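Encode chain A's predicted structure.
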Amino acid sequence: MMDTTQQNTAKISVIVAAYNAESTLGVAIESVLKQTHYCVELIVVDDCSADNTFSIAKYYAMRDPRVCVHQTLENSGPSAARNLAIAHATGDWIAVLDADDWFAPTRLAELLEVALTKRVDMVIDSYFLADKDNHISYATKHSNLCPEGESIPVDAAYFVKNGLGATKPLINAKKIECLRFSTHVKSGEDLLFYCQLLLTGASCQFVNKPLYYRTEAPSSLSRANKVRFLSELISVFALLRRITEQHIAAKHQGCFDNLLEAIDYRQSITEDALVAAKWRGWVLCKRASAQPSLFTFHQLIRHWWNRKQRYAINTL
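Encoded structure for chain A:
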């Protein structure tokens, strides 16, 4: 049985890495401060923004003692900013929030309840895809993994195979004392970080409740330069494969063989998406760039035919 006192008193540190986020940061911050679970601290790290991001964060810090604001010495990317936030976090649990996203009011309370009831180190929820301007949700992701409102256990292989790398788990702070986001990885750093947690023994539960609202701004790397983003993501799969093989060698057993299969599967999906991005770029540039090889055309068709299923997108 869950200890309600433990649930009410558990402190959750929400970390936000912000760069040129003046138009969205207020919504993100307010979604944390309005959580039904009141025992939170919000750590915002401004990554040397060129706009009013830092001033907006300080504005909220002056009005609510739960908000702390830090700034990187130089623009270093989201991994470095998140690592700085983790270094200042004092909570029992850690939750990541992107500066252009927001939480449902009950999100932290509901994820914490699952964590304590199931006695796991990580809890992942399904999430909404939403328009950043009008905040209207137009789809959900991963709501097909189990019946609505129910939860299932997740290991590293399941995590990778089902493309859960863009989720934002609630994580037991004790599990990340010696682990940080890789500052050498520009895309897919979340995927790598969460997989490393699972590989080192963190237990995880997925709950099918979309409590996170994710937007994709046109300026984000995944939208602004899809080819570069996907190319770097493929490199992350290669790195994750090496890390997994090291675990297998160290343990002298093939207990992670299913993870290697999941990595290969997800990498093939990403390679198809990369082909599609190259074809799309060629068409939009009015064929000014080099035409992708005709031998990749089947990958383009396969990507578009299976896209919603592969990326677990359910249109509302």
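The longest helix spans residues 257-284.
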